Amino acid sequence: MLELDLESNAVRVLDASAETVRSVFYTIEGQVGWAVIDVAGEHEVTSRIELLSDDRSPTEVAAIDGVADRVLTNPTGNGFYARRERTWTATRADILYASEDGAKTTVTDVSRRYCRFRLPRFAVAPDGQSIFIGDGGSLWRVSTVDRTREQVPFQAAVRLEITEPPPVPNLALPRAHDTPTISSPRLTPDGRTVVFSALGFLWKQSLAGGNAERLTEGDFLERGPAISPDGRRLAYVRGVNGQQEIRILDLESGADRTIHRGSYFWDLAWHPGGEILAFATRDWEGFSTAVLNVADSVARPRITRTGGGFFSPRPHFSHDGQWLYYRFDAVDTATIRRASVWEGAESDPVAKIPSHLAGALVSPDGRWLAFRRNTELWIAPLDENAVSTISEGRGRQLSQIGGASFAFTPDGQALIYAAEAKVWIRSLADDPRRKVPVQLVVDREAAPPLLLRNVRVLDFSSGTFGSEVSMFVDGGRIGWIDPQGDRSVPSETRVLDAEGHFAIPGLIDAHNHAEGPYYLEDANQAAHIAYGVTTVRDMGEPLEWVAALAERSSLTSSPVPRYLYPGDMLSGPPATYGESTILVRGEDQVRSGIQRHKDRGASFIKVYHTVPWPLQLVASEDARQSGLPVAAHSMIVQEVVRGVTHGYAFLEHLESFSRFYGDVHQLLGMSDTYWTPTLAIFGATGALAIEEPERLANDKFCAFFAGSCRHDVEGDTPQPDSAGAAWYRMLFANIVGDVREARAHGVRVLLGTDRTDYPGYAMHIELESFVRAGFTPLEVLELSTQGAAVALGVERDLGSLEVGKLADIVLLDANPLDNIKNTEAIWRVIKGGWVFDPEELQPRTER
């Protein structure tokens, strides 16, 4: 605990204990006090109020049962007022008066009215006769004498100058770069071949010339290539139906086999002996590293925990095979450590680096450390006799871009890296970089013409499904819609009789995450399509990967939704999501980050809440000049107010476990800013699962999300009469109430699900939650299709079923205007003319 002198700016330590301190205050005599929380168990919590004595030691003056998280001194004498909750998980709280003689009296009940996680604030009148409480957007006075409570009327007039968001650019879809984005280039030991990733596939390219060839077959998502020391085998990670596999490909015979399955693998590295792989893995507690014997396919934990940060430890071996290097994350500083491969897990530090420097690799000769800073590629010398302290000032920048997926060449004398659509090799001797002649030519797969007969199309202007018509799709777009359907069509046209099914536009999830180093959405892209989500607005993932997904969606027939994306989020320190963020400390970094993302096809800019407000204003102004809208968080009132006044186009999420009141919704309603509350991730899924547990147990859900299927997971959903169920109901009522009030104030809303365990399916939870908030089924269908397309700038191509637009269509068994749950009754999904049967997309795994 620290004290800051406001005149001299001197800071002194008041208490260096590690105990939980929840409130700091001054008595009327000027003594410093605080509350210390003692936790013996979930239902055994006590608090003690301490004052700092003249000898600088704490003295206990009062004890309270429960959690005292706000303490104020009595202005007229001894004693203290404390806001107290009985336990960490209590649903009731009060304001307590505790005198120094041990007496305690409850002044008033302040149990949570709107939310479990935010208690009302209070203050004590100077005369000590009243306390004032702010609760539910109202002000209350409670007498400390007779405990009577009365509402205090008040009005507030606030004038805000609002900067209107820039017009959303009209985006032409589909769009793909002439040469797809290349990442993770790796050179074979003989220096003759480069292996790399593009479109989520693995490729090889002879440096002697010719075109790149795909290494594998099948419609999987592949990444992370690692070439064995002898150059004969390739290890890589493959995503399969929400799970991941480590596979070994024999580069000579083409034989391909799975050697390990699990839920997260990253940064594969071969031991020089060629029979062991090291890799990073992660669970909810953090990163760890493991070693895998290629022969027996047994994975063994090596370093059980590598810190609590969001950067991969990137394990790798020394050239002689004696050491395993890895990154260990602390709060402000990370260390590169080494552990003996053959002995215990004890490790020694090799280098210290700032926490935002990532992807560190020790060179084969142990003399250099290569690492990335945002998009940049850096190199720094290592001290052989001491722990090296690495910084940007001590290192040397090799390239402004290319830091996302670099590696040492086999001889250790250079680095190979990708910069957008090119591959480069840069010598450590600072020679000019040289281009690797990669020739990757990918022809767009063209969907055959499609004639859809006897389909009922949703017309937003009339708010109804019309009579049965025929629809012709050619080149992925709707060519004509005709009640008669007797026009001539090309001979190769595929005919699909919809038999009266109801057609709605493909759903647009306006807040999702394509894939990150810690989640598995990359392996479950087909779930989006199977549940009718044909377009996703990604809200911040590694630029190289999300660009690859967008290109794959545009160029191939893979069941991958269309992607709109910002790329890496702009973040302030600490870099919360590791490799998914660009850490900005100054205006130049903000501007360069925005320009690079625009150059690589970003359709907007994501500013994370950790960016300081002055730099957020710079981001807003620079993005406006670049013609890109800005999206940011809205999880506290300040973020909403500043986001609107800065001219942000999109604000994401609702206030964490609390409520926005009418003034906030009024501000949003008067602006042109869109709000995406993301209800599915904030409790809607849990609440509806308690109400209808069977919805998480049908065959389709269990096929796509086996780990969450209630057939296999017993006791995961609280019983309807449990305290946990009551909490979910309260939370659901809270978030639905927030959306209901937003509707009343005319707030422009979008539907998005965030990073859920149920990509695709969560969108239907969102639709139903909005209907429960007072929107009609027609309104939520419009918001999640046509309205979202307008908001995101793609209405020329998406959002409605009209001639000339892309043929993204969901065919339903039942009318969703009668019951919004009918959006889950999906017969077929069409994306750009490609027809997908959800039954065929479902994983065929044994349960």
Describe this structure in words.
This protein is of the alpha+beta class and 847 residues long. Strand 40 (450-459) and strand 41 (464-465) form a beta hairpin. Helix 7 packs across helix 9 and helix 10 (761-772) crosses helix 11. The radius of gyration is 29 Å and the shape is globular. Residues 516-521 have low confidence and may be disordered.
Give the secondary structure arrangement, pairings included.
Blueprint: E1 2-4, E2 11-13, E3 20-26, E4 32-41, E5 44-52, E6 58-65, E7 67-73, E8 80-85, E9 93-98, E10 104-109, E11 121-124, E12 130-135, E13 138-143, E14 149-152, E15 183-187, E16 193-198, E17 201-206, E18 213-214, E19 221-227, E20 233-240, E21 243-250, E22 256-262, E23 266-270, E24 276-283, E25 286-293, E26 298-303, E27 316-317, E28 323-328, E29 333-340, E30 347-354, E31 358-362, E32 368-373, E33 376-381, E34 388-389, E35 396-399, E36 407-408, E37 414-419, E38 422-427, E39 434-436, E40 450-459, E41 464-465, E42 469-474, E43 477-482, E44 494-497, E45 502-505, E46 507-512, H1 525-530, E47 533-538, H2 543-555, E48 562-564, E49 569-571, E50 581-583, H3 587-599, E51 605-607, H4 613-626, E52 630-633, H5 637-646, E53 650-652, H6 662-670, E54 674-676, H7 684-691, H8 699-704, H9 723-744, E55 748-749, H10 761-772, H11 777-792, E56 809-812, E57 826-831, E58 834-836, H12 838-841
Parallel strand pairs: 30-34, 40-44, 40-45, 46-47, 47-48, 49-50, 51-52, 52-53, 53-54, 54-55
Antiparallel strand pairs: 1-2, 3-4, 4-5, 5-6, 7-8, 8-9, 9-10, 11-12, 12-13, 13-14, 15-16, 16-17, 17-18, 19-20, 20-21, 21-22, 23-24, 24-25, 25-26, 27-28, 28-29, 29-30, 31-32, 32-33, 33-35, 36-37, 37-38, 38-39, 40-41, 40-42, 42-43, 45-56, 56-57, 57-58
